[in-house]
Specification:
Helices cover 4% and strands 43% of the residues. The chain is built from one helix and 35 strands. It is elongated and about 90 Å long.
């Protein structure tokens, strides 16, 4: 009798394996020659994201569907090609400025048609501004760009006594020999424009300011340098964040040049704790969890590019917004208040973020790479708390009061389990 039961169990196991069907889903685009294929079980779901490169726009999928992102249910082998079209070319005009001083070097910059540009004429010590070459005497002067144009600032010697106090002002672009140098009167207002070459992006001024254009009031000797991404860099991602908090990111380009945050990949899961390993390089299309140490993060592309977002060890990326109305995030997890939080109804996620599917996270603890850093985050929602509705990754809870609080702002007599707490206004992680 036992032998028959064993045979029956074996037959049931073999039958269940035969019933399991896998299908291949292939995703490509008309912008790139490569394609990515996924092997998925029958009736499983996958989200397709179409992310155009600069200068292009998504129109539809090869089957005519126009949803982006788009969630499909796997019922057969299928190919999906994202269709993109080129956007109309932007008309640029060259604006050239220089002065009537001997040896003055013209400066030429390209502006989009219709742009408004402010021109400033700054005389050197002993001279005063008289007019522009077209007879206009406004200084500063606003012009609307509608054609190539040249403006010459004309200066004459001043009959007035030279001011007893002036400030030395210098501005230039990084890796550029030519600089704008003037001695100016105190409280002079100057508007600075940083214009990157094609394919580059402005990063910041040498004093850390990222405004462009930027207006300063001269109160001391000043030397400013505009920094830009390198020629091979294609894109930049700048995001305002909250220092001391975790978030997620998934970009279509790789990077080893970033500021404002440390980035982590998912290492493994142990009960209600998710462990993360710090990385130094971001791969194109790969999702990461970051810890912000400043109020803004900047990630500058290295020239590598991914057509669709990827996943790693249960962390899934998105290049586009996931709306709450779709309920796509229901029963999935997002980073919320420095924890991994279960989503309920109407949860949303902005573009270039990531979410967690706990069932896909490994339970095996990997060896820590030499020199790497490992941190942990608490998981809420599965056997720990109910799910939350109408939440997004961007919500935060703050407390500067004395005492112990959990991440939801509830006062506690003491920490009750492993995780993040705010103790006397400071963020503390408890590991048990």
């Amino acid at each position: 009798m036992k032998t028959k039961i064993r045979y029956l169990l074996l037959l049931l196991l073999l039958s269940s394996q035969l019933w399991a069907v896998d299908y291949t889903i292939t995703v490509s685009s008309n912008m790139y020659s490569d394609a990515q294929s996924y092997t998925l079980s029958e009736n499983s779901s996958i989200a397709l994201h179409a992310h155009p490169k600069p200068g292009y726009a998504f129109t539809q999928w090869s089957d005519g569907n126009t949803d982006n992102p788009r969630v499909i249910t796997v019922t057969q082998d299928a190919d999906y090609q994202a269709q993109f079209v080129a956007l109309p070319a932007t008309t640029l005009y060259a604006i050239t400025t220089y002065s009537n001083e001997e040896g003055a070097i013209p400066t030429t910059m390209d502006f989009e048609e219709g742009a408004q540009v402010t021109l400033h004429a700054h005389p050197k010590t002993g001279f005063v501004f008289q007019q522009w070459s077209d007879g206009n005497t406004d200084n500063p002067r606003m012009v609307t760009v509608n054609a190539d144009a040249t403006y010459v600032a004309e200066f004459v010697e001043s009959d007035e006594t030279t001011p007893s106090s002036t400030y030395h002002f210098t501005v230039k672009a990084e890796d550029c020999q030519q600089a704008f140098v003037r001695d100016m009167e105190p409280s002079t207002q100057i508007t600075l424009y940083a214009h990157p070459e094609e394919g580059n992006a402005f990063i910041a001024w040498s004093d850390g300011n990222t405004d462009n254009p930027r207006t300063i009031t001269l109160e001391q000797n000043t030397n400013l340098v505009a920094t830009f991404t390198s020629d091979e860099s294609e894109e930049s991602h700048i995001r305002d964040v909250q220092a001391g908090y975790y978030g997620t990111i998934c970009l279509p380009y790789g990077s080893s040049h970033y500021t404002g945050a440390h980035f982590f990949e998912v290492a493994y899961r142990d009960g209600i704790m998710l462990y993360l390993d710090r990385v130094s390089t971001l791969e194109a299309g790969m999702p990461y969890i970051f810890y912000a140490y400043a109020d803004q993060i900047q990630v500058h592309g290295d020239g590598t590019y991914a057509n669709i977002p990827s996943s790693h060890n249960g962390l899934y990326g998105t290049f586009t917004d996931i709306t709450g109305a779709s309920n796509y995030l229901k029963d999935k997890y997002i980073v919320y208040n420095n924890t991994i939080r279960l989503c309920g109804n109407n949860c949303s996620l902005p573009a270039y973020r990531a979410y967690v599917m706990l069932d896909d996270v490994s339970n095996l603890e990997p060896a820590l790479r030499p020199g790497a850093q490992r941190v942990c985050m608490s998981i809420y929602g599965e056997n720990t708390a109910t799910s939350l509705d109408n939440i997004t990754e961007e919500m935060y809870v703050h407390s500067t009061q004395q005492g112990t609080y959990d991440v939801l702002g509830r006062r506690l007599s003491q920490p009750t389990h492993a995780g993040f707490y705010i103790i006397d206004g400071k963020k503390v992680v408890i590991v048990k």
